[in-house]
Structure prediction request, 440 residues.
Amino acid sequence: MLKRFTNEITAYQLCNREDRILLAVSGGIDSMVMAHLFHQAGYTFGVAHCNFQLRGKESQLDEAFVETWCSQLNIPFHVKVFNTNNYAAENGLSVQMAARELRYIWFKEIMDEHGYTLLATAHHLNDNFETMILNLVRGTGLSGLRGIQYKSNNIIRPLISFAKSELIGYASENNISWREDVSNDSSDYGRNYIRHEVVPKLLVLNPALEKGISKTHQRLLAAESLSQLGLEDLRQEFVVVEKNRIKIDKAFLMVTPYPVGVAWELIKQYGFNYSQCEDMVKVSLDISGKQFLSPSHQLVVDRDAWLIEPHLNPLSQVIINHGEAAATFGALEMTIEKGMYSTLSVDPMVAMFDADKVQFPLIWRAWEKGDNFTPLGMKSKKKLSDFFIDIKLSRLDKQDVTVLESDGEIIWIVGYRIDNRFKVSDQKKQIIKLTVQSHL
Prediction:
């Protein structure tokens, strides 16, 4: 397993010998196996452990266990104790989301302070399968179905192709100790529901499920790579860039039985969504002059080509009228649903509101200085600039923040927090559910 571990690091260019790597280690079997492999492979690394104080004495024992392991091997050890429950209550978050927010903010601080170049997490094949299932249920393209990447920005996941059973076997063979987290036995969250309810049923269909998942993951990675090569060939043949104008020969519609999907891959970088691509393909056969708008670009269906140009005055906002099912702002696409929901989502990219409190049209726009809202769980208003400080949002991340307005009031800092005044207080009433994801 060690040889395969180092081979995959090399094959996927995850890190090199010059890197200083920060390992996120909880003390569970996954992260302890990862730490052992990095140590055996001779990489330079330190360990970061989060004590969320969620399991009483067990949390203290987890911290002591990881610290002892690091001390015995002379490995730099970083630890922080969080008051997770208070943070969740103050910021209107689930405990799960509060812990995620806290740890990644702290990881960045540690990396900046101590010169670590990469963060390694112990996500494995089974984690990736859960992500693939979740994305499939939500509706996604090839990149979403492929699941968790080996590397994204400065985060690496060197165990992503290893099944949980392999990690257990390696730990047993190498006498690796670990700490058990009984919260993983819960079915409270989507991932654990898949883990404990869905996977056992799939094992009945295929006892070699992990091997099947591994093969599927590798084939999806290959398919995504091949699709990118094919798209580049299409761009070379059908796309011409003339200063600020992009010209796409409509003949590309005839070379594939799936023109909508191909069109979306060709133009999604300009802010157009999948639904717009469906309409573009429909009108391309017999209509010219039809115009489509994204927040940053306009597309005109001409006689022989699609002509794309930046707006002279880029859209500063998107208006969502009553009855619309989707909207796009830059790289983000929002779906709008209304109905009865038995549970409220804890996903930060999903917002649920009391339908009686929301007035259309909604305005989706970039945040501005002076904006304020009442964060979920609070009674008084707070400036967005102060809210960003509270959650330690970087200057670069601030630039991408958007907000959603209803009747002049901000109801959602998109991807971060809803306004307390618009929360769902009675799940027996109609609920508006908004889901945002990147379509790039």
Observations:
- The mean pLDDT is 87.
